[in-house]
Structure to design on (317 residues):
């Protein structure tokens, strides 16, 4: 009979290899190398959101769109060059992602106090947390130590970021492909309690779908004509658009989801129960959202000697 030891050794080797990446992310990563890093980011985020409340949602979205494309590696920040195509012109990002100037400003401040120490990927993760907190949402401890990619993927950005037209099953699959559960998908969707949506992303819903509150449909149509105004924006939560709360889920119970993908979370399917819970239990939503953000922030980071610490978030060194 063959000895089980080789198999056991192989299993243990795989376990430790898988653990190594997450082990290299730590909440104290900059405590000695750049002790003022987190306070510098927090101050800048608070200032940016004070200037424009919408910026909070924009910074959260940047982190999400970064992590869903080959991991949380800052690739979303890279500009196109004559010899390099980044992710900014991908369909989910083009004329839509914003906040790059805020990240640039934060990076410049950090380079001034700790040159080439704090990664752009980590700035995105911390700025997302600080944005949520600034708008009244929960806090969480951000794991740090991500490094920045030297590449980007337009194809992955076009294919991996969940579209606002997805049904529940495809939403679940999209998040599952990134190691996130259906429960975490529903919790993370609650980020739509802040932010705006472009007309092009909800036009079909307001003109063709029936599971939408009549008054909401009428209101949205006034700013989203049937054939024009693709880039006109409307709040995803019209009641408290700049407060991070559970009104997103309350809206869904009343058929007031702006995006098709939003209303899928309360449409007679498997997500209904969790959505109902969040609509009446904001503390539960906050707890689940925070945990899901930590897990999303741990998707395939570059650590150790992989990647680099960019001096300028828009280009490789």
């Amino acid at each position: 009979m063959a000895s089980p030891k080789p198999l056991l050794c192989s299993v243990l080797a795989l376990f430790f290899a898988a653990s190594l990446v997450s082990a290299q992310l730590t909440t104290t990563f900059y405590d000695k190398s750049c002790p003022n890093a987190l306070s510098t980011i927090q101050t800048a985020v608070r200032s940016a959101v004070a200037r424009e409340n919408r910026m909070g949602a924009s910074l959260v979205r940047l982190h999400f769109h970064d992590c869903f494309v080959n991991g949380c590696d800052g690739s979303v920040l890279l500009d196109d060059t004559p010899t390099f195509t980044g992710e900014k012109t991908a369909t989910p990002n083009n004329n839509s992602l914003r906040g790059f100037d805020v990240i640039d400003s934060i990076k410049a401040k950090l380079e001034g106090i700790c040159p080439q120490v704090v990664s752009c990927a980590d700035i995105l993760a911390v700025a997302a947390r600080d944005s949520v907190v600034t708008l009244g949402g929960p806090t969480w401890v951000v794991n740090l130590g991500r490094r920045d990619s030297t590449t980007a993927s337009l194809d992955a950005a076009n294919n991996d970021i969940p579209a606002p037209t997805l049904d529940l099953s495809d939403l679940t699959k999209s998040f599952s492909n990134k190691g996130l559960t259906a429960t975490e998908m529903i919790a993370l969707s609650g980020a739509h309690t802040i932010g705006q949506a472009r007309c092009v992303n909800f036009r079909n819903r307001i003109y063709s779908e029936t599971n939408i509150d009549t008054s909401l449909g009428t209101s949205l149509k006034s700013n989203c004509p049937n054939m024009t105004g693709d880039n006109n924006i409307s709040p995803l939560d019209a009641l408290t658009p700049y407060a991070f709360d559970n009104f997103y889920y309350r809206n869904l119970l009343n058929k007031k989801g702006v995006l098709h993908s939003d209303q899928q979370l309360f449409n007679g399917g498997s997500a209904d129960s969790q959505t109902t819970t969040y609509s009446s239990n904001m503390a539960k939503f906050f707890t689940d959202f925070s945990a899901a953000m930590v897990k999303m922030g741990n998707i395939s980071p570059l650590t150790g000697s992989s990647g680099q610490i960019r001096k300028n978030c828009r280009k490789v060194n």
Summary: Residues 5-24 form the longest helix (20 residues). The CA atoms of residues 92 and 137 lie 25 Å apart. The longest strand covers residues 196-198. The two ends are 55 Å apart (CA to CA).
